[in-house]
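DATA SHEET
Item: assembly model
Revision: 1
Owner: S.N.
Input lines:
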Amino acid sequence: MPCDPMIQISHISKAFRRYRRKYGRMAEWLGLGIHHEPVWVLKDLSFDVSPGQAVGIVGVNGAGKSTLLKIIAGTTRPTGGTVHTAGPVSAVLELGMGFHPEFTGRRNCHVSGQLHGFRAREMDALMPHIEEFAGIGDYFDQPVRTYSSGMQIRLAFALATARRPDILIVDEALSVGDVYFQHKSFDRIRQFKQAGTTLLFVSHDRSAIQSLCDRAVLLDEGTVVRDGDPESVMDYYNACIALGENTSVTVTPLASGKYQTVSGTGQAAVTRIELLNRRGKPAEHVGVGEPVTLRIQVTVQDHLETLVLGYAVKDRLGQVIYGTNTWHTGQVLHRPAKGRIYAFTICFAANLGPGSYSVVTALTDKDTHLTANYEWRDLALVFTVENMDKIQFTGCAWMEPVIEVSAL
Amino acid sequence: MTRRLAILTQVWARRDFIRSSVKREFAARWIRSQLGPVWLVIQPLATILIFTVIFVNIMRPGMPAHDSKFAYSIYLCAGVLTYNLFAEMLGRSVVIFVENANLLKKIYFPKLCLPVIVMISSLMNFAVTLVLFCGFLVIAGAFPGWVVLAILPVLAVLVMFTMGLGMMLACINVFYRDVQQMVQVGIQFWFWLTPIVYIPATLPPRVADLLHLNPLFPVIRACQDIFLEQAMPDWSTLAYPAGAGLGFAILGIAAFARLQGEIADAL
């Protein structure tokens, strides 16, 4: 690595103390033995973040994400281990920023900024930018108690990003804002990233993680379970969420450097998948708008009540472009025979922009994979779309235009 | 040692925060009130006036070795106003972490800022009171002159004692909120355990001896000496509260150093 890490997390652990008796803590102060049990939230966690990297932290509730961010932000101390940050940290943790409900947004911004070590004059200079970015209009000069939660987060985010920090920490908060504000804040985060800000981002929003981050860390029960490119980590995470009894998750490295995650009970499996071009030949490259056929063979390995095939086409960042399943199309297979192979032929026009795409398949009993997950196969197939005969365009969708130009 | 100094520079870097927080504290008291800052003057003025009216015109208790009809109300004011400073500082510093939970959980900043804010705003409050009190002394023809400056070292001792005690209790209060209730009750008891309303000479000798255990006694008496006797206090008597203050300050810092990790979690 060419330069020193921006954030160095080494062997962080964090335990909350649970006291059996009310006066246990007092007894401990007086030196009368140990009366608590440690509840470990983070266990010997280590990773480095290099400058300018954007890292998404994912995991189920209680995995330790917020605690980790709080430790990095400095509002909580680790029980063991050290965190070293090579620059000032600006954090948007949960709701609000310790705002005083009786005071106006403007005044709160002033005080919070000063709490971060800004001088009053600097805050005066930044105030118009904060007001403009928060975009809450007259509310900026109203007491914060009259704000909606969305407004509070707008103000908090505008304040935390008033000046580009070396390290920006955002904890789920943005999901409270409306779509317009989310776009606005993601844009700002992207700008900061380009300018060299290191980002730590907690979210349950897969597309936000995949579009913003170039690395994801999956936490489970206080340890790092996976650390890698966002798509592979999110695939694995997604598979783990559906994890039930008799479910296995396997991760196979692919030639492309990505990881294919296959999870499920294995009661049914995709045994063959191919994409056919307009001439009916298997193809890896297809043209924009070309009619193609996705042919999937499914082998049933067990007695099942119902079988549903779902598929989705994803772009290079792993964002779903289109997806549906045979539940929605009313083609559920009832009592498929054990040992039989079923063929699914899906015809569609590849109305996609040029680029690399992947297909994910899911074999389930209903419309989601959460009740029964026979098999979930990420990156089941990869193909590229090339613009061979269409006008020049950008974007991920082919929407053939008819343009008329006339002088008035 | 260098770490301690680093904390001081961090606090200094936030001087604007401290200044505006102090302002904000005063403003918060007057928000939605019509008279605003006038209340800052009315309250101590009322205390002084009531004591004067009642004890000069109605009850007229005598002070041994003093002829002035104002003697007792000066004695009373010197004690009560100083005790009020103690009560305000202690009462507010004990809840310092609990009341600022919102900030402590969300933003990293040197915690030392918080007691500094309490100290400054209490002292500013007291400064207004002191000016009013001096005005009253001038009118009563009993202004002690330059001796009044002796109040500064006395206040320094009181502040160290109170803040040290307050910080220590504030740490415990995070985990056992009974502390803040106990402090409120304690402040009332302590008031009567200190010769503020009564004169130590009126106590039976055995009880009077016990007074010397009370670290506030020398502080309050120093104030009474300055304002009533118009004399320098007996500095040697302040050694005990100063020592106790230093002890509490060290205990307070130690308690905070040991518990600060848990404090943020428990809030």
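QC remark: The radius of gyration of chain B is 20 Å.
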